[in-house]
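Minutes, methods subgroup
Present: GH (chair), OT, SY

1. OT presented the first of two proteins processed in the latest run. Sequence and structure tokens recorded below as shown on screen.
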Amino acid sequence: MERLYERRQRQNVDREQLLADCIASSPIGQPTPGEQGFLQAFVQPTIRDDDLWDRAVVSCGDERQLLDRLRSATSSVPSGQWGTNLSKILNWRQRGADKWSLNTASQVSDPSAIGPDDEIVADLSMDGRCYFFYGGAAVTSDRNNARRTIFALYERGIAVNLAQFLALVGAYYRAGDQWGPIHIGMAVTGIRGAISAHFMEDISMSAQPYGDEIAVRALPFDTRDLEEDPVAASQKLMDRLMRAMSGGIVWDPLSD
């Protein structure tokens, strides 16, 4: 029993460190308080495997076919009317010797022209470590011609992008014959004072801004969870944030 407790404590500490490393990996620094909120996430096997990418390439025939299969996996999660999402990124870019990336910078001739709200990065390392960044989790809005700008958290954008990222990673692990326990973590940073975009027009809800700088969740999963239902995995990671933003009202950001 004591050894089991120590192992669980060690796994909790590991996930906390992975979350801290994930947040520190932001490609554009930390969000401006009251103006920006970022979604960051990670997935990695409990035991990393340096041969994972090579196995995935062999199973698909070649690297280009693997990359095409992985990118197409993001479309398994419908984006609805949400325009800025991972499935819209078409081109892969290799970063260093052991990492491939889907990112908005690869889509334009001048990456400096990309605003923080439209910044998306999905990195897949060849040993199974995967990282995601989405810059539009919370932004200032003057929707409906409000007399003042409102700092709004866009649950739908978070849900779409997180689920698409998990579908991408699930396809990667499946292609590489990676099975077993994995760590998944999510952090939404810079969101103190944000209100729910979904309830923005509800005066009673707008009086309940989020009271902390960050929302985090890190949990153990199995690779099968990402293959069978990445949406359910994303919902589990988001459920506490969703309840906090909605005053306990249950709604599905991917329902329409």
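2. SY then presented the second protein from the same run.
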Amino acid sequence: MLKIPDDIHKISRPLSIAQSGIDKPCPPPKAEIVQKTLETKTEKGEGPHQFVSFPEAQHGFALRGRLEDGEQARRAREAEEQAVEWFKRWLWREDVPVH
């Protein structure tokens, strides 16, 4: 549903994306535009933004992957770790209580 690159240019808050390589809603050519746009925004001080590609992963891999499939489970764990590290680095603040 995103209009690429228009909607990506409008991003004003830190953003991290874990992008699957096999993705009909955002196929590789569109994903590359998203990645380059976010990189440019970060370089201009309009970030930080992060784009992590999982080339062999299917759309929804981080939320709907089959955990009994070793490769899908590994990719889902990697995406989770990437997200947690992103939040720790850019959004977590010691002065704000977690509820």
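Chair's summary of item 2: Residues 6-91 form one domain.
Next meeting: continue with the remaining queue.
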